[in-house]
């Protein structure tokens, strides 16, 4: 019988990647696309999508049974009735929604995840005040629009992308306070991530060499795709992302919401992915060291000894999680003359913050931490892993993949 392959596509901030896997979850091939600086973003995304798929060998493409796409969370587009973007998209970090936050605070319940200047809903309410809004028919996330180019159904999203649009993932509906608003007609219908939406459009399937029965599935966000890629699966499993900032994600039986600490939960089937983000992380390391220095200095750290240096590494004042203090000052003193000793103190302090973060999630009701997978630029640092293992006292496992596109492919495989 014919083999069945699954395609996952990840749209990140600077580029996109795609992975094809087989039914044993083995990665068979990968393609990449770098965005460059074309000002017309949606045109670039469309080109990237088609070129990522076309770059796989024909014999892989024509056995693909399912496709899922992840995009950056809260990157949104306003489309007309034909699915054409009316405007440039608003990117994940665009905070012009600040202007409508007071309005949003009046209509949404306290502590709701939409209450942020960058949320999808804040962006939609900002758009509502712009002159071209009357032609708008659909609000779509990046992943929704890209999937639409493949399956042709307008107005479809998933419950990961739609969390910050206000979708209620407990009751599987939009809440009344949202459906009462004038913008309610633009809200997409929401599916389970990975669920098949429709087969590939015949014309697109022919153009890309995909079989006519290839299903295009509901997608997810880039950070959830990265979580799935790690292989974390049971409650108590967590992924720590050691990127520019420190991001914790813990799989839990129970959801945890806490606006004070910026903690919210994504639904993952009948489980919850509880997340918190600290402002400490690799960006602070980069302020003092190059990547090469980080590598060779780390190798000289006596990792079995606990550093007595107690820092709070931040680029600028202010922290949200695990301590909420908008005025919290970076603490980087005393600074030893020996660079290895200094780096040891930084890594040890970040490991303490990580441990405190998981303790915080647990104290708020999340399933206790039992196993950590690591993602991001700091994941390759074995000295840091040893320090973290000592501080955290749980099992550390190697991630199946560090590539969000692999997580999206898993979603397509499991969903189909
Ligand atoms: P992001 O996507 O959040 O910008 P990445 O996951 O690409 O970040 O990771 C980049 C970060 O990783 C940088 O801030 C850098 O300081 C850190 N980093 C890179 N190599 C190492 C290393 N060997 N040890 C510790 N941190 C590292």
Q: What does this entry look like structurally?
A:
By secondary structure, this protein is an alpha/beta fold. The chain has two domains: 5-223 and 405-415, ATPase, nucleotide binding domain (Nucleotidyltransferase, domain 5); 234-399, Nucleotidyltransferase, domain 5 (2-Layer Sandwich), CATH 3.30.420.40. It is built from 13 helices and 17 strands. The protein has helices spanning 41-54, 58-61, 101-107, 120-128, 142-151, 176-179, 202-208, 222-230, 282-288, 291-298, 339-363, 382-392, 404-415, and strands at 5-11, 15-22, 27-34, 64-71, 76-79, 138-141, 156-158, 189-191, 196-199, 215-217, 220-221, 237-242, 246-252, 264-268, 271-278, 371-375, 395-397. The longest helix has 25 residues, at 339-363. The two termini are 18 Å apart. The structure holds adenosine-5'-diphosphate (ADP).
Radius of gyration: 22 Å
Q: What is the CATH C-level name of the largest domain?
A: Alpha Beta
- What is the N-to-C succession of helices and strands? EEEHHEEHHEHEHEEHEEHEEEEHHHEHEH
Please name the CATH architecture of the largest domain.
Answer: 2-Layer Sandwich
What percent of the residues sit in helical stretches (DSSP H or I)? 25-40%
Q: Write down the CATH topology of the largest domain.
A: Nucleotidyltransferase, domain 5
Give the averaged pLDDT, no decimals.
96
Please state roughly what percent of the residues sit in beta strands, choosing from under 5%, 5-15%, 15-25%, 25-35%, 35-45% or over 45%.
15-25%
Bound heterogens, unique: adenosine-5'-diphosphate
The main sheet comes to:
7 strands, mixed
Low-confidence stretches: none
Domain count: the total is 2
